[in-house]
Amino acid sequence: MKIFKSMGVAALVIVSFILFIGAIIWCYISWDRYRKTTEAIRYQKEVCDTIQKAEGNFPMMISGFSKKELSKIHFYLQQGKLLVSDTVINFAAKDDGETQTLKFPFKKFNAADKLIVNIGNRYYVLSGYRYQARYNYGMFGPVDPCFCESKGFEKINGEPAGSGWLIKKYGLVDYQLPPWQ
């Protein structure tokens, strides 16, 4: 009986030790996650929300247009209430798929600017360009310091952008362009 009692105590000590080590590891991971979350919130407010100039040439997804409609795509850059720049690209669809990817034609622009895209007879007004603080994650959590990642435009035609795709059926048909500067 004494041997069972000492084996029970030894097993209890080993299980308690394993649970204690597991609790320490869990606390360390939770604390690190909390610290990284608060760091990302601070970085968002102090750095990402203050970015005034945005870098262009990012991909834009378009869907539902024919090859003829995609042959010429007009881009207009609006600052305040006036248009300041425009460009036309001749787009050649890469395949017969309904969804195509095109590059944003302006290299730099103000984050507060609006972009008006004209595809066929449809217009899309993109506004609220923003950046979001984020980390690169590895197997055990963040591996690099926090950075600002482009999240694109928040609104398309005054509505939340959702996926950010320019879908034909959601385009404005009777849209009047603002006056030129």
How would you describe what is shown here?
This protein is α+β, with helices and mostly antiparallel strands and 181 residues long. It has 2 helices and 13 strands. It has a 6-stranded antiparallel β-sheet. The protein has a 3-stranded mixed β-sheet with strand order 5-2-13, with no helix packed on it. β11 and β12 form a beta hairpin. The mean pLDDT is 88.
SS content category: alpha+beta
Question: Can you give the helix content as a percent range?
Answer: 25-40%
User: Could you list the spans in which at least 5 consecutive residues all have pLDDT below 50?
Assistant: none
Strand order of the largest sheet: 4-3-7-8-11-12
How do the SSEs run, as a string of H and E? HEEHEEEEEEEEEEE
The whole-angstrom Rg is 26 Å
The main sheet comes to: 6 strands, antiparallel
Overall number of domains:
2
User: Beta fraction of the residues?
Assistant: 35-45%
According to DSSP, the number of beta strands is 13
Q: Average pLDDT, to the nearest integer?
A: 88
Overall outline: elongated
Terminal Cα separation, in Å? 96 Å
Helical region count? 2
Keywords: Membrane, Transmembrane, Transmembrane helix
Transmembrane segments: 6-29
